[in-house]
Design goal:
Strand content: 15-25%
CATH class of the largest domain: Alpha Beta
Radius of gyration: 18 Å
Shape: globular
CATH superfamily of the largest domain: Alpha/Beta hydrolase fold, catalytic domain
CATH architecture of the largest domain: 3-Layer(aba) Sandwich
Order of helices and strands: EEEHEHEHEHEHEHEH
Largest sheet: 7 strands, mixed
Helix content: 25-40%
Distance between the termini: 36 Å
CATH topology of the largest domain: Rossmann fold
Number of helices: 7
Number of domains: 2
Number of strands: 9
Strand order of the largest sheet: 1-2-4-3-5-6-9
């Protein structure tokens, strides 16, 4: 494993590059991005090492504002920025002599599973996409939160988002809330299985907080609408009874159109 960096609009992105032993010819490369608030040292190496053993190169990176990457304020999620970071990781991998630029695969979990679809819809040279429990249906997620946590929680979450946005506009430090918390607490995901799951994966660089404005800017992100423009194979792994990234019957039927 090598520590590498690349730039996005002058900001350094921290990444880990894994190369297989056999480099007699340029090898395919899997670009790995984590989910909501995740960092590259949260379980991704487990996958990366297996891919490396199978003869693939792997580039796992931290998004701007997270982990070992630069970017202020810390813990800021902006979907357009993260899409730029993922795209920059692809461009960096293609620039390496060890990598076959025509054999780039995208691997994403949770939010970044959807990112892979969006990027592949534009970049026709992507070889394939693996979307693990991807965040595809913000409407279903909203309905689930409303049912489990109630309208009061939803309203409080939006108040926190507005507070953070107001502080941003006034040039003040961000207002952050925990990503996960125990039931009854104020967190983005105050759900027991989310809290337990993140706690098990927590790493040295994981910080359990996020700038609250993300609630105001993420609900319109719908990767499924880009599927019609994707030409490469996609493996979409939907988890039964997913408490963070559920899908509605409508979205499930939409996905069936593209199934083989």
């Amino acid at each position: 494993r090598k520590d590498v960096t690349f730039k996005v609009k002058g900001t350094s992105i921290s990444a880990w590059l894994y190369l297989p032993e056999d480099l007699s010819a340029p090898v395919p490369c899997i670009i790995m991005g984590h989910g909501f608030g995740g960092t590259k040292d949260m379980i991704m190496e487990t996958y990366a090492l297996r891919y490396q053993e199978a003869g693939f190169a792997v580039l796992a990176f931290d998004y701007r504002h997270f982990g070992e990457s630069e970017g202020e304020p810390r813990q800021l999620i902006l979907i357009p920025y993260q899409l730029e970071d993922f795209t920059a990781a692809i461009e960096y991998a293609r620039s390496l002599k060890e990598i076959n630029p025509a054999r780039i695969a995208l691997w994403g979990t949770s939010a970044s599973g959807g990112y892979g679809m969006v990027i592949a819809a534009k970049d026709k040279n992507i070889a394939c996409v693996c979307a693990q429990c991807p965040g595809l249906d913000p409407h279903a997620s909203g309905e689930m939160f409303l049912k489990k946590l109630g309208i009061g929680y939803i309203l409080r979450l939006f108040v926190h988002g507005q507070r953070d946005m107001m502080r941003f506009r006034l040039g003040l430090s961000p207002h952050k809330i925990p990503i996960v918390g125990k039931p009854g607490s104020m967190a983005f995901f105050p759900i027991s299985d989310a809290y337990d799951g993140y706690s098990k994966l927590a790493s040295e660089n994981f910080i359990n907080e996020v700038c609250a404005r993300v609630i105001l800017r993420s609900h319109g992100f719908k990767p499924v609408k880009h599927l019609r423009n994707v030409q490469c194979p996609i493996l979409i792994q939907i988890c039964d009874n997913d408490s963070l990234a559920p899908i509605s019957n409508k979205i499930a039927k939409e996905l069936e159109k593209y199934a083989e």
